[in-house]
Prior knowledge:
By secondary structure, the chain is mostly helical. Helices cover 77% and strands 0% of the residues. The radius of gyration is 17 Å and the shape is globular.
Amino acid sequence: MLHDRLVRALSAMLLLPGVLHFLTPEPFDSIVPEEIPGPKRLWTYASGAAEVGIGAAVLAPRTRRTAAGLAAMLFVAVFPANVNMVRLWVDKSPLMKSIAWARLPLQIPMIVLALLVRRAARKPETQQKPID
C-alpha cells in the first residue's frame, strides 16, 4: 500500500510539471542556462517529454524499475536549471527567492524517492534454466 502511494507520488511529480512544460513553456525556457547550446524551447519540450514519458512509465509495473531509475537521473540532470533559477531570481521578491532556493535541497528527497521506487519494483523476469 505504501509502495503504491510512493509510485503515484513519483509519477505525479513527473507528469504534472511535464505537462506544464507544454502548456506554459515560458517559465521553463527562462531557467534553461545560457551555457546549454541550442534553443531554450527545445530543452523545455525535451525535458517535458522526458517527464511525461517517465511519469507514465513509472505507473506500469513492467517498466517501473527502469523508469524510476531514469527519474532519478532526470532529477539530477535538471539540477543546473534549478541552480540557474536561483541565480536569475536574485532580484525577485523574498517569496520567489525562497521558492528558488527551496527547490535545490528538494531534489535530494525526489532522487531518494525515485531510488526507493526502483528498489521496490519487481526485477524483470530473467530467463530460467530448464529443469532437467
